[in-house]
């Protein structure tokens, strides 16, 4: 299907278009023929995201950030636009599976890179599964005027506005399906504290905390 579309778009034979697509990700020196260049796929992320959102009719845009492992070789960090239950990747970073260092720098760079594609009329929600959440990422997403909706583990604490004591997060939503909403401060540790107004939703092993 992609090959047929490329044939019509580029006005070339099917086998030639197929070979071009096969070699798309290769370095210039590994491609057949003359005048070949290396494609920097990162330059396509913003134009592709703009192209999608120019055709977007809803006022809200959901960006999902997710990490996928390819065996023990690679980890793919991807930012995707969620459309009718389908995640359309619009930016990604491939890392070695055993590479050290925080992923936050990559999430923040990718989200900032897509920011110019977002219209002022769009309300952007950034969703992430547990394991990706961090106070730094939460704050950076807020600075971009996006709304973080991250799943978190239930082991933290929360102090409602005006309350003298901290309470375990799971005490606010003790059963699956329970919800709670109110203002206060999340997490005891000073470096991790967040002022928030979270509607929390209880799951089997984690809670969702929007910003």
Mean pLDDT score: 83
Low-confidence stretches: 204-208
Q: Give the overall form.
A: elongated
How does the helix and strand content classify structurally? alpha+beta
Highest CATH level, the class of the largest domain? Alpha Beta
- CATH topology assignment of the largest domain: Nucleotidyltransferase, domain 5
**Looking across the biggest beta sheet, what order are the strands in?**
3-2-1-4-5-12-11-8
In words, what does this structure look like?
The protein has 211 residues and is of the alpha+beta class. It has 3 domains: 1-39, no CATH class; 40-150, Nucleotidyltransferase, domain 5; 154-211, no CATH class. Helix content is 24%, strand content 33%. The chain contains 5 helices and 12 strands. It has helices at residues 2-10, 14-22, 42-53, 104-114, 135-143; strands at residues 60-70, 74-83, 86-96, 123-128, 147-153, 157-160, 167-168, 179-181, 184-186, 194-196, 199-202, 206-210. An 8-stranded mixed sheet has the order 3-2-1-4-5-12-11-8. A 4-stranded antiparallel sheet has the order 7-6-9-10, with no helix packed on it. β9 and β10 form a beta hairpin. α1 (2-10) crosses α2 (14-22) and α4 (104-114) runs parallel beside α5. It is elongated. The protein starts with a helix and ends with a strand.
